[in-house]
Amino acid sequence: MKQLTLPLFTPPRYTFDNLILHEGIETAVSALRQVCEQVGRPVSSLFLYGPGGVGKTHILRALAAFWEQKRPHRPFVLVEVESQNEVSVFPLLHQLVSGPDDVGEAPRLVAVDDVHLVRGNDAAALWTLFNKLARNGAPLIMTSLEAPDAIFEDNPHLASRVTAGLVFALRPPEDDARLLVLDKMARDRNIRIPSEVSRYLITHKSRNLKELEGILDLLDETSLELKRRITLPLVKLMESEGRL
Q1: Which of 6, 153, 171, 205 sits at 20 to 30 Å (Cα–Cα) from 146?
Q2: Are residues 214 and 135 located together in one domain of the fold?
Q3: pLDDT tens-digit readout, 9-63
Q4: For residue 71, is it within any domain?
Q5: Cβ(90)–Cβ(125) under 8 Å?
Q6: How much is the pTM?
Q7: Of 169, 187, 206, which residue is a domain's last?
Q8: In terms of domains, do 90 and 203 share one?
């Protein structure tokens, strides 16, 4: 009989303090922190793009926590994919633009994650939101898998508005930084993972951080099921059995 496995960790709150900075993201993170520190100065938009697993969502949620700490009475709105239907994948976008023209008594920070999924009605709502925020001196922050000219090639007005702001290309970390990220993910889960296992995973399995996170969860589940520590022999056993 297999041992029932239960999640034994609480996902950590995303903050800048627990974000592993590296050369591929540090310039963008610095710019975002300055937006929070210098609210009131004109910043039209910030656009962060890069491959999956580079840390875009972590950065946005860390920004939300940082903004809440610095300016608790000035709301931060994070727009994420909520549905997959023909009408809209960002229902919150339409709620933000359907209200009064004034976005609030104080500047508001609005961020849209995965903006590469914006299409049709969502694109129209994003354009309206851009204009509404600009009139109120509030910046719009976006993340995407692709660069803005690739996303909005059929919408030159939106592409021009996006590229008029700050655009940052995020790059994946080098292997040394990946080891730090993998170690942190393990510690967040109260998992002990030897350094030789971490290096093996990065050099033989994946360099994508999201994929590594999934591999780590699978290792933890198998370790509990088999009542074995996470070691290189366990990893190779899982490979031989087609589990990994």
Answers
A1: 205
A2: no
A3: 445 567 888 788 888 899 999 888 887 776 555 566 889 999 988 888 888 888 8
A4: yes
A5: yes
A6: 0.76
A7: 169
A8: no
The answer to whether residue 101 sits within a structural domain is yes
Looking at the domain assignment, is residue 59 inside a domain? Answer: yes
Does 127 lie in the same domain as 56? Answer: yes
**Domain extent at residue 234:** 175-240
